[in-house]
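Re-run with default settings, no changes from the original entry. Doing this only to confirm the output is reproducible before filing.
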Amino acid sequence: MIAVDGLTHRFGDAVALDDLTLTIPDGEFCLLVGPNGSGKTTLVRHFNALLEPDSGTVTVDGTDVMTDPLAARMRIGMVFQQPRDQLVAATVGADVAFGPENLGLTRAEIDRRVTSALDTVDLEGREDDPVDALSGGEQARVAIAGALAMEPTHLVLDEPFAGLDLRARRSLLGRLDTLHESGTSVVVVTHDLRDLHERADRIVALADGEIAADGSPSEVGDLEPYGVDGGC
């Protein structure tokens, strides 16, 4: 479970999150929506201690993320909006393998995870390709594969479909379905509800650093005021 309690974060005099409290249960498929500047990305970056709160706490599976950020990062797979920020190796295969290698897994298990993750994003057989030679969309797919290879208990994706072609989008959606069915909680930060609205257990809409709406898709209703595009 991801539990946010009284979280406040400021950038100078600007309040990005204002005493926000939110719980995401294990196994939930949650969409986090809202206009630019509403605090969505700031919020999820607190999930694995990439930002330090001005006040409040975030716990992941009962552990305070500021006390043990490594534990949080092992449990939460994070895919950033700018995928190049999280690519760490020279080749596709080495990058996707980086996380599992740091878990001390066997070579056979690492290879299995890398192959499975690359298959999901339609990059099978591209292990030796240089990361720097990839397009922006391909780099996004590598970043997603790296998060999937960690097999986290919670997967958080910030605008994951930007730059993906239709085939890769469908493949990723299928993998998200499988993860959700297996009990992994999935949090998707998005402006685009296509193919996601019907999958969501819950939609949380932010505005000005506060929760403006929270409930099932039918309870939340019209999302146009929260800067959401795409069909429902």
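The radius of gyration is 17 Å. Helices lie at 40-47, 69-75, 92-102, 107-120, 136-149, 166-181, 217-220.
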